[in-house]
Fold:
Amino acid sequence: MLKFLKGVVAGSGAGLKDLPYNIGEPYSLAWGSWVHYRGTSKDDGAPVSIFSLSGSNANDGHLVAGRNGVKRLRTVRHPNILSFLHSTEAETFDGSSTKVTIYIVTEPVMPLAEKIKELGLNGSQRDEYYAWGLHRIAKAVSFLNNDCKLVHGNVCMASVVVTQTLDWKLHAFDVLSEYDGNNEAATGPMLQYEWLIGSQYKPMELSKADWSTIRKSPPWSLDSWGLGCLIYELFSGTKLSRTEELRNTANIPKSLLQDYQRLLSSAPSRRLNSSKLLENSEYFQNKLVETIQFMEILNLKDSVEKDTFFRKLPNLADQLPRQIVQKKLLPLLASSLEYGSATAPALTALLKMGSCLSAEEYGVKVLPTIIKLFASTDRSIRVGLLQHIDQYGESLSAQMVDEQVYPHVANGFSDTSAFLRELTLKSMLILAPKLSQRTMAGSLLKFLSKLQVDEEPAIRTNTTILLGNIASYLNDGTRKRVLINAFTVRALRDTFSPARGAGIMALCATSSYYDATEIATRILPNVVVLTVDPDSDVRSKAFQAVEQFLQLVKQYYEKTTGDATGASGTGISLPGNASLLGWAMSSLTLKGKPSEQSTLTTTNTSAPLVSSISNASSAMDDANLPPVRVNSRTDFTDLADHPPPVSPTTSTDGWGELENGLHADHESDKDGWDDMEPLEEAKPPAALANIQAAQKRPVSLPKSQGTTIIEINYD
Structure:
C-alpha cells in the first residue's frame, strides 16, 4: 500500500493531485478494508485524518459501499459523529492493472484501541473515561436510530475513533441504510452491504438473513446489539472473534451488567433502546460524565448553578484523569469564558487546570483566553484577572503586555471602585517591567501621579511602594524628574503615617539613583523633619534614613578629597538597607478578596511577595491605646489630627513643581509630574481636596484622645 501511495503522490492520479492535503504515516488499525492515515493541510499545516479504500475497478463492491459511506458521512452531522472535510476519487495505473482509490479527509482522529493504549488509564479513572466515551457513542447511535431512522449496522470498537480532545466519535458508514420496517412491500435485504459485517458481530436474525423479523423489530435492534459488542471489546481488551464470547461477563462492570445483557437480548424487540440506556443506566452517573455534560449545556444554567459548579471545579478537576482535564475540560472552560457563558469563578479553575501544562501548551491553550478576557466589561472578571495575575503574568511577553493587556488594565486606575484601583496598582509590579518606555512615561506615570493623591490612604501608600519597585525600569531622565518629587513632596507629607513611612523606605531603597547634591539639598532636609514625627515608627525610619544618607554624603566627600581609598561614591547603603526594597516588594502583592471591605493584614519585611501595604500601620508612643486594624475603606479622620511636620520646602501637589528655597537653580525640578498632561479632571473631589489641604496644614501637637493605632511589622 505504501508503494502504491508513493506512485499516486508522484503524479499519476487525476484526482489526488488536487487533494489539498499531505498523506502521512498510517495507523495500524482501521475499520474494514479502509486504511487510516495521519495527514496535514497544505495550506496551514493543520492536522487531519485521511482514510483510503482501493479496488481493482470502479464497480468493485468495496468501492461501491465506500461511496455510500462517503455520501452518508457528508450528509449526516452530529457532535458525536466524525466530521467530514473533503473527499476525492483517484484512478492510478500500476503496470497493466488499474486501481481506483477513494480518499476521505476528516478531522484528526486516532483509532480507539490505540488511544486507550496511549492513555494507559487504570482503576476508577479508566472506568470514568469509558463511561464518558460510551455515553458519546450511545448518543450518536440514538440519533441515527431514533431521530434519523437509520441503521448503522456495524457498531464495534473498530468503528469508533478518538479526537484530539479525547471525544469518541462514530464513523464507518459503508453499511449505513434507511430503516424500512414500515414498508410492507419490501422483501429484499434492508442492509444492502451487510456482507461487509463480520459474522461475529451479527445477531441471530442477521446471520440468518431473516429480513422479515428485522423489519418487524424496532429500528435500534441491530445497533443495540452492536453497542453490546463494543462494550465487550472495550472491557475485555480484545477484539471479538466469536459471537459466543459475548456471554463472558467477567470484565463487565456490575453497574453496567444488566444493561449489557438487555442490549444483547436474543429477542430483537426486547433489546434496550440506546436512548433508554442514556437516561437510566447507573453506569453513566459519575463525576466526569456529569461535569462534561454540565459544561456542554452551560448556557441553559442559571447564575447560581454556574457559580456553585465553578467554585467546586478546581477541586473536582484533581480527581479526574489529567489528560481529560487538559485536553477536554480546559478547552471547554476556555471557550465558555471567551463567549461569556462562564462566570468569574471559572477563571480560578482555568488557571489551576493550566498550571500543569508545559510553557508551550500554556501559551496556546490558556494565554489567548486570558488576553481576550482583559477586554471584558464584566467587573468580576477584571477583578479575578488582577487577583491571579501572579499565576500567569510571567508567561506574558512584553509585546502582549504593552499592546494587548495594559490598555485594558489601565482603565482600572480610574475606576470608581477603590478595590479595583488598588488591584490595578498592585498588578503593575508584574506588568510594569514589560512596558515600553513610551508607555511608562506617557501613560503609567500619569496614572501614578494621580493615585498618589487618591482619597484612599492605602492606595497612596501602595503607589509610593510601586514607584520604588519600578524605579530600575525607568530611564535616567525620568528617574531624575519623578522619584525625589514623588517621595518627598507627596509621600513624606502625607497625613497617613504608613504613607510617610513608605516614602522614607522608598527613598532608602532607591538611594543609588541620587547624587550627593540631591541628597544634601533635597532629600535630607525633607527627611530630617520626620525625626520629630508624631508616629514613632516614622521617626525610627527617619533616623535610619538620615544616618544612611549622611553616610553616603560622607563617602562622596571622602572620595572627592582623597581621604578614603576604594570607597564608592553612591549606591552604598548602611547595613539593613537590603531589606528595605524587600519590604516594599513584599508589601505589594496580596491577593485581596473581591470586596470593598477587605481587612488589611500586617506587613512583614521578610515575607515573600504575598502581602499588602494596604494594612500598613504604625505604633504610637501611647501604649495604653488598643491597636485597631485599618482597611482601604476606613475613614482616617483621626489621623488628620496628626499631620506630619512641615518640610523646609513648599510645593504644590505636582511631583515636578518643587520650589526649593535652598537652591534656586533647580529648574529641572519643574519638568516633573505636572509637566505631563493631566488626567481629565477639572476639579479634585471633595475628599482629595481635604487631603491636599491637610498636606499644607501647619504642625500641630497630637491629641491624646481618639487616636487610632495601626499595627505593622518591619522586621
About this structure: The chain has 27 helices and twelve strands. The chain has a mean pLDDT of 80. Residues 387 and 593 are 8 Å apart (CA to CA).
